[in-house]
Amino acid sequence: MERKTLDQREEMSDLERLRHSCAHVMAAAIAKLWPDAQFADGPAVDNGFYYDVELSHRITPEDFPKIEAEMKAITKANAPFERVIVSRAEALKLGETGHLGALADRSVPSKFKLDLLKDIPEGEDISCYRSGDFLDLCAGPHVMRTGNIRAFKLTTVASAYYKGDEKNPQLQRIYGTAFPNKTELDAYFAMLEEAKKRDHRKIGAEMGLYVMDTEYTGPGLPLWLPKGAAICEQLEKLAKETEFAGGYVLVKTPHVAKEKMYKTSGHLPYYAESMFPPMEVKEAGEGTETADRYYLKAMNCPHHHRIFAAEQRSYRDLPLRLAEYGCCYRYEQSGELFGLMRVRSLNMNDSHIYCTPEQFAAEFNAVNEMYLKYFKIFGLEKYQMRFSTSAPEGMGKKYVDEPELWKQTEDMVRHVLKDSGINYIEVPNEAAFYGPKIDVQVWSAIGREFTIATNQVDFAVPKRFGLTYRDKDNTDKTPLCIHRAPLGTHERFIGFLIEHYAGNFPLWLAPEQVRVLTIGEDAAVVEFARGILNELRAAMVRADADYGTDKINGKIQRAEQAKVHTMLVVGPRDVAAGAVSVRVHGKGNQGVKPRAEVIANILQAIRERCP
RNA sequence: GCCGGCGUAGCUCAAUCGGCAGAGCAUCUGAUUUGUAAUCAGAAGGUUGUCGGUUCAAGUCCGACCGUCGGCUCCA
After folding, report:
1. Residues 238-267 of A with CB under 7 A from strand B
2. Which of residues 369-388 of A touch strand B (CB under 7 A)?
3. Which of A436, A410, A452, A461 is nearest to A270 (CA)?
4. Residue A82 CB neighbours (<10 A)
5. CB count in 10 Å sphere of residue A581
6. For the segment 463-502 of chain A, residues whose CB is within 7 A of strand B
7. How many structural domains is chain A composed of?
8. Which domain holds residue A397?
9. pLDDT (tens digit per residue) in A218-264
10. Chain B bases having any atom below 7 Å from a protein CB
11. Does A242 lie in the same domain as A365?
12. What is this model's ipTM?
């Protein structure tokens, strides 16, 4: 974990202060129940706090009431949080006697606290906080007294590696949350319950959008059902229209490639563990036998690079924008799979733009504008643009060893961002190995953060593939490449949209756009309904009809539950009038209108992609 | 991949201390001619995730595996 600077600590909000203080109270309660507890870090986080602890006893949610009761007693005692500045020698002694993160001296040292002590730079104050008998190494700040903590609750227990490193021991991480008062605490849990109802895994199953056939297809390999596939199709159509207008050209590439492809790109061996294992293919020949390894493609870029290389390129051909809805396969670790958000087969809204340095700013900016255009269509407002740059310590290891090029391209991107007035944060040491990137971060219903779109600069891989264009001065030059996926992947983007809309898709995206519901079984009514259905389908509207013998209430109930966007109710009265009664999902009865007008309105709303 | 929780009909969930595996919805069959959120009746549906163990007896206890959920690590 990054050490917070003094300034950042000063900025800690009242709520963070409260939560971090509550973490101390929880630690004190655990120390009382299990004196051998060894505490590591216990910060405030987005929705509460946690404390990492090593403990022989395996804490389960059944222990929570017991811990919470101890916490209650501590807050009731209302002891002050006292800040104690100690010398390094004193701190070491407290650690050696096991008194850091503990109620008293112990026979074993506070090993994690001693380790954390090493991270405090010489010359910086070493502060401890005492609340009642509990003493902890801590930078603070805290609330005044334990009694200031009035509303708290433990939520889950999980495991976490010490300092987030796989090689370190796993600790028990106990999560809790705290709020200024009980009303806000209750409201938070009510909100969580609501969020769970938006979970794309739940809605995806209810609406019949996709299934994970883990037994036959495999984990992380979704089967898109007709209704989910319909959404994929609409996204793809949107992307193709937008890209066509933006001067992109479509290409198509196979799902497998020889080992040489990924050796050249640099993905092998570094990316190998994220790829499906290779297939050995033997070709028997006349007295010879050749063997090749083929890999399922984990990304489209190498294929596109080879398309660039397939023809002679002049500066007059640039920028060249190759686009493809390419299906890639990544062998994500089993514990990382998460519904549609993290899968092993992914359809990327991919493109690679090859350009000269002079063209770069305009191209990069056009990509950003494309993002914003999409976000407007989807009414996406809560996102964070994240500009990831390199760091000197990673040069030649995590990043290709071209410090000058890094600086140049990072400056180029920074300028584009500043000039376009886009709001963003800059994060050092998070770039791709081939260049800086901009990711768009969003949050799932249950609060998990995801990259939904990405825009990356690549000044390294085209060189590895020997890509060149003939410039004005009659010399061969290597193009810059922009990798971009504004709609990310179908899987993640649709997972996100399900939660964003809570399954209530706008008309243009709704899996079932229209359902015609008949009243009675009168032949004239059914014929009238069928006429409307046929007209809608001829116009590519995803429409269906319910001619069954149920009462209209039953038909409406089922259509509403299926989240059908528009219901057209027709009965004998409507046949006579040449009209239909319109009902919109979640909005109720919209009244009777002439048939032609209703159909025209539907087609217009779809064409304009009304929100 | 690691730590922990969970796995009963298509779905949501019952089944007391280890003692005959059940309900609602959905499905199927029949009846019902219906105007804005559920018409009635009947039928069918299971090697309790898989494999092994303990026991007179296992959905229930133990172990391994598979899957999934919450995190960690990682990432579009």
Report:
1. none
2. none
3. A461
4. 12
5. 20
6. 485, 488-489, 491-492
7. 3
8. 210-278+292-501
9. 999 999 999 999 999 999 999 999 999 999 999 999 999 999 999 99
10. 1-5, 11-12, 31-39, 66-76
11. yes
12. 0.93
